[in-house]
Please model this.
Amino acid sequence: MSLASAPGDEPAYPVALQHLVEGYLEALDFGVDPRARRLVEAMRYSLLAGGKRIRPVLALATARSRGAHPEAVLPAAAALELVHTYSLIHDDLPAIDDDTLRRGRPTCHVAFGEDIAILAGDGLFAEAFSLLLVTQQGSAEARLATAAEVARATGVRGMVGGQYMDVVGRAFDDDDLRALHALKTGRLIEAAVVCGAVLTGAAAAELAPYRGFAVELGLLFQIVDDILDETGDEEELGKSVGKDRAQAKVTYVSRYGLEEARRLARESHARARARLSALPGDTDELAMVTDYMLRRRA
Amino acid sequence: MSLASAPGDEPAYPVALQHLVEGYLEALDFGVDPRARRLVEAMRYSLLAGGKRIRPVLALATARSRGAHPEAVLPAAAALELVHTYSLIHDDLPAIDDDTLRRGRPTCHVAFGEDIAILAGDGLFAEAFSLLLVTQQGSAEARLATAAEVARATGVRGMVGGQYMDVVGRAFDDDDLRALHALKTGRLIEAAVVCGAVLTGAAAAELAPYRGFAVELGLLFQIVDDILDETGDEEELGKSVGKDRAQAKVTYVSRYGLEEARRLARESHARARARLSALPGDTDELAMVTDYMLRRRA
Model:
């Protein structure tokens, strides 16, 4: 597997699921008062900037592995992409990472101004909960459990806690590095798989193997992210590379070196595949996403 | 009634309910990883800055009017204060209102830095949904309806939409002024009353009179807010006054003049009281909040 080191074919990906998500996101207009039109434009600008839609695709692929139609979990899956987009917009702000380029385009605050970017992030977060709580269908218990999962995954013991650690901490030990990533990116990836399972009828007691698989996938995602920040192609990635090094961030590459980070990624991938084999149903699409996570170049 | 024009006794207020909320908020530590300690400090700094806790008190008073114990809706009520605090923190940011003083203390970004303030707001919003979805007890349907109400109240057709209109618009007509306030402050006040009713068993069909009362209360709140920005005492208010005028914002005072704004407030108060009389149960505490809204000086 390439680990972003060599040009070659685009790794396989469940594109049908990706397109399903894309179509759903494109149709979202948030039914807004015309007086707030530009706020919605800013939200859609960042939301529709492309990308693999990994989190929603994971939710849909999990639902499919359980024999359900992916459409059945589409609003909740889309909500995960709204949450992810909100976190990127706020992360990119001048006061935080001060990034000007994202997916090959000016970041939200560069295009719309900092005030509107802050509110666009806030708006996406709120609208994500509307998708989870109002639009998504299913039993009240399942919808409640799904929204609760997303709330916990995005709070101080989740994504925001990880973002905070990333903002303030520049001297981490191994434990801190793992904790930061588990919170900042891992927790939402876990929530994606859990949402796909819960909305298709998985009971609380059945969730442990789904969580185990997803946690490993989150780790794999982050190791490869660190490698790509060092070795990736700026044009393919659509964002600046080498920023981690410039900001003296502790990453898997800075801590272990490039070769060791690649070995850790391969090990993590193998563990994720092993954990996947413990899940019931047809997990082919989840396997495809798992392999993509290792081989992706952007 | 004084309409902030004369010194005198503090108007009556359901302080027992206020203290119940205060105690609950003080006990919230968000069970955070010690590595994110300062993020939680920032959240608690803004959350525990005092104030009348109008939104949670409205939720508790509504529950009481329906014969329930206020404790039964306390997590959801507290969630409304987390949402309100999050909106204040983001509103105060340099890129938005650039306020340095709030409730007599430096604003969150002045005390903790802009990066942490942005994340503290994000964290409070997420934790509000955890309170609504995980901590709050009751039927799955009622908890789902409550969280959905808050999601809609805070989205682009609610609070964030209103904040956006406030940020970008400087030339409003009467319709726009009403729409801005209905979204920015009115919608969350409405959600507070609705949460108190829904969590104590009110069916969707019974909500119309509660909404009618709360919408009027939100209007009253805003008219008085505009009057206080013109006439209030900076020390009592704990924030700068005259900012609306300095920023050339359209307010009830700038549009109608002080005397006419006072008359509109008294009319709105009378309408709110009339609508309150249509609600079932013992509405004494709701009446007290309604009268306080007109008479408050801070």
Notes: Chain A has a mean pLDDT of 92.
